[in-house]
Amino acid sequence: VSCGILFNHVSIHHGREFLPNKVVHAAAEIRAGRQNGIELGALWPQRDWGWAPEYVDGIIRILRHTDPDDFVLATGRPATVREFCEAVFDEFGLKFDEWLRQDGAELRPVEIACLNGNPEKARTTLGWEAKSDWADVAHLLAIRKMEAMSA
Fold first, then answer.
1. What pTM does this model have?
2. Residue 115: left (phi > 0), alpha (psi -120 to 50), or beta?
3. pLDDT averaged over consecutive 10-residue blocks of the chain (151 residues)?
């Protein structure tokens, strides 16, 4: 048996209960004049966000690997929630801090400071490496959202 330990991977198909998609949707709605801000909790936690389609390739490589083992799929390049949000809002031509409303109700009772994976074993053993980091994910989500809005 092999196990894949996948760090945060983001897709356009995720719901708005996931922070990256919540932020992209809010930025798009603000830009369109249909929303007047975004409510978020802590902005300091760091997350290792990667692009889900790339992780599918890693999953396939794990499944095809002949020797059972455990592998971490991650970018190894975390960003704070604030950095990610600023990058998304920049994609929409907006200043994040102008639209942010921090809301205590959005705070988690226990927050993990940093979720950052080490994908070295997947790289050396499987030949898998994330090509997109958190900034690329922000860009890809924003582009897909803008395309959907103009369709």
1. 0.94
2. beta
3. 96 94 98 97 96 98 97 98 98 98 84 96 98 98 94 81
